[in-house]
Amino acid sequence: MELASYADRAVHLVNTFDPYRRRDDLTTVEDARALLSRQGACGRLTSADVQELRTLRDKLRTIFDTADAGGQQQAVDVLNGLLEQYPIRPQISGHDGTDWHLHLVEGMPSTAAAYAAKACMGLAVQATELGIDRLGVCQAAPCRDVFIDTSTNRSRRYCSERCATRANVAAYRARRKEAALAGAASSAA
User: Fold this and answer.
1) From which residue to which does the signal peptide run (predicted)?
2) I want to staple 142 with a disulfide (CB 3.0 to 4.6 A). Which of 20, 24, 64, 114 is the partner?
């Protein structure tokens, strides 16, 4: 598995909370199990794991928000703190006919800690390979979902095509309304 792919775990975890709507999709063990299973992770989960994931989610949100606002050093400091809190053990693996590649080995004290270690390592790989400024927050109001901009020209501003379309339609309607108002004002004069 490519280490950068573990960064998706950080994105998915942060996006379990919608700060605008105050919707939280990580309140129960079942919610945590659903999140982890979507990421191919498994293990025994407890309510303590849910709380640990929620705490991690808040710290990861800080990283994305701070990086998006231009506070690269602060974002790196928070990420470094998480890497220290959740150390990883890499192992070379070759399975299912694939080339040799790195995996992050289990052996953490909890399922949440194992998920955290992988998510933080993946985010660190992406931040160092692409740049910390590639960690973004969706610009389509009211969405606050996070993403990692992997575009070649550093142009991504939205978390999804849905948000991009919604923002573009809203901008088009605003331009049409403005043009209509300007036309009405000039004909009245």
Assistant:
1) none
2) 20
CA angle centred on 19, ends 14 and 21, rounded to 5°: 125
- Which burial class, exposed, middle or buried, applies to 141 when counting CB atoms under 10 A from its CB (0-12, 13-18, 19+)? exposed
Say if residues 12 and 35 touch (Cβ distance below 8 Å): yes
How many beta carbons lie within 10 A of that of residue 85, not counting itself?
13
Cα 147 to Cα 123: distance, rounded to the nearest angstrom: 11
**Share above pLDDT 70 across residues of the chain, in percent, rounded to a whole number:** 95
pTM value is 0.84
Q: What average pLDDT does range 46-66 have in this prediction?
A: 97
Count Cβ atoms below 10 Å from residue 11 Cβ, excluding itself: 20
User: Above 80 in pLDDT, residue 22?
Assistant: yes
Architecture of domain 3-132: Orthogonal Bundle (1.10)
